[in-house]
């Protein structure tokens, strides 16, 4: 089984923020728990608190701690409520805030993908993926903008820790681990992928009326073969 910290690292700070780090327990399963069903929590569960109030969130965290759950994940503002954080601190359980834009269904899919793999595909502490995430962070620092690194099929390989100015298109890309179809269509219509496929120069795309911010895209090639691209 995979420890909770590695699971959270795999999803990334763009989507999840650790409010209070507790014991680094092995994760057994991902469970959605609504108020009144706290007795369903088991040791090692990643508990997603859906439809909670402040009181219900505090109770959920307290029960999760007693049950030795791996972590409790809550949407704003509940994860940072003093009563909730106090319960997490007292119980020694990890408390995590989920970015508001992330749907519970998407999060369940992402978490279970990590668990099913039996290891963390996108972890920052081993091998090539460490290098890719480090590269994304380095590029983000230079260009002062959020960055993703994608393969030739528009699948996300890595992204910068800094995503504070990410627009909805970029967030959807990170959440889904690939560029959504509507976003692909938008960039394809502007000839972006044709230029990436044939050239070696960076491609600039102005901001769009729908709120999509400007993009600077750099192709990554090995000779004539397009391996992927860096999007800033």
From TrEMBL:
<protein>
    <submittedName>
        <fullName>DNA-binding protein</fullName>
    </submittedName>
</protein>
<dbReference type="GO" id="GO:0003677">
    <property type="term" value="F:DNA binding"/>
</dbReference>
<keyword id="KW-0238">DNA-binding</keyword>
